[in-house]
Amino acid sequence: MKITNLLAEVGESIVINKGRSLLTILGIVIGIAAVTTIMGLGEGMDAKIASEVSKLGSTNVTVESRNGPTTQELEELQNPGHKAPEGAPENQKSKSVLVEPTLTEEDLAAIKDINQELVTGVSPLVATIAKIQSGTGATIAVQGVSESYGYIREYEFMFGNFFTRKDVTEKNLVTVLGHSLANDVFGDVNPVGKQINLSGTDYRVVGVLAETEPSQFDNPNVVAFVPHTVVVDKNGTSKNYGSIIVKAVDEASVEQVKTHVEEILLAKHGYANTDEADFTIKSSAEVLSSITGLTDLFRKVLMISAAVSLLVGGIGIMNIMLVSVTERTREIGLRKAVGAKTRHIMMQFLTEAIVLTIIGGILGIALGFIMASGLTKALDLDIVPSISVETIVVTAGISIGVGLLFGTYPAYKAAKLDPIDALRYE
User: Pairing between strand 223-227 and 139-145?
Assistant: First the structure.
């Protein structure tokens, strides 16, 4: 039997039995729509997470003290009951034991001595808070960093530049303001050269960051950056650093840099491995991997639910196709009587099942994308659903697989009917 004749017969059968065909397609549409929605939201979430992590710098390695005081704790020490100010890094908002941070000036110096062909920037990060004494009077997040921090984070500037190495070594009272913070305090005026009073100390503004899209990890728009030497000098609770950020020359060098930093700090702190150490080391890729690992687990759970929907849809196809075989028993007998072979009958019913599932798959993909887009808007999710070629190929394969799996038995049953008994069937 020619493929064109076979498809023509299948098409005619589908059109004649519209109600049955519609019910068959509906079960597949629901299952495929569920799969497409989950995959579309998952890919959109992966892209969002990758974008958020990339804002931290794809070539950055971050060393963190396990025991440093958090921004939330610093705020509670000075203003009991208050929350940490906006812009504080997320990893410094959670509760931890308030003890001395473990990263020292000696650690920083040793890391800076790593081959400059591998490392292009190093900066400590000391998070604290300060109250603006004029203007808004708000409490803001302050980050003590080195002159390399702007380069490490790849910040762009609206006015001025980052402070210099001289400012750090001489402990000059200078600051770089986030875009929103500068607007709140100085309005639209260029504030470079002007003074801002933070917790009773006047700082000269040397730069203002261009507006930066906030990430889930921090928001530089509302932060004041000052030399880390100034923060450490004024910090009454600790002289050490909460974290140190190291920028590798390129992505290929990240693991090598991470290994060098790990070896240096393990030797200095007297630990055999990082599991026991009083510090942690992570690259941006590892941060991304740990987060996507959680989202993958969540996605798998949802995919199991979608698989159940497809199973139900497949069973529906088999039931409806079996009913179709029963209704068309005399037709099958007549075909066999005029010379149709067993494989022809089986191929016709199997093709009909596959065509119906492909139609259901196409409609399911379209419905899934609409559902994914609708869910992101309804739940106010900050992600863009993405339907990739991979998603389309996978869902198309699932559709054809369901048609083959659940259409085979009805097709086999139809093909094995005895033509004489079939012609006698009422």
Answer: parallel
Cα 393 to Cα 30, 34, 189, 196: the distances in Å are 17, 15, 55, 58
Q: What is the residue whose two structure tokens read 């923060």?
A: 231
pLDDT band of 145, cuts 50, 70, 90: very high
Q: Considering only CA atoms, which of 291, 414, 290 is closest in space to residue 343?
A: 414
* DSSP state, residue 85: P
Radius of gyration of the chain (CA): 33
Q: Report how far residue 124's alpha carbon sits from residue 64's, in angstroms, rounded to the nearest whole number.
A: 10
Residue with tokens 């942690």: 280
- The dihedrals phi and psi of 163, each to the nearest 5 degrees, come to -70, 170
Residue 216, helix vs strand vs coil = coil
Give the relative orientation of helices 284-327 and 342-378 as an angle to the nearest 10 degrees: 140
Nearest to 313 by CA among 395, 393, 403: 403
CA angle 243, 246, 252 (to 5 degrees): 140
- At residue 245, the pLDDT reads 92
Q: What is the pLDDT of residues 289-341, one digit of tens each?
A: 766 666 777 777 777 777 777 787 788 778 877 877 777 777 777 777 777 78
8 A C-beta contact, residue 84 and residue 141: yes
Three-class SS of residue 62?
Answer: strand
Please give the C-alpha separations between residue 165 and each of 62, 103, 174, 229, in angstroms, as whole numbers: 21, 20, 12, 11
Q: Please give the pLDDT value at position 418.
A: 73
Token output for 334: 């007549």
Helix/strand/coil percentages in the chain, nearest 5: 55, 15, 30
> Looking at the whole model, is its pTM more than 0.90?
no
Q: Which residue, among 322, 333, 335, has the nearest Cα to 426 in the 3D structure?
A: 333
Question: How many CA within 13 A on the CB side of residue 341?
Answer: 4
Average pLDDT across the chain, whole number: 80
Residue 100, pLDDT above cutoff 60: yes
Helix (H) / strand (E) containing 279: strand 279-283
- What's the rounded mean pLDDT across residues 91-97? 40
Alpha helices by DSSP H, listed for 60-152, are 71-78, 105-112, 149-152
Residue 217 token pair: 């990890």
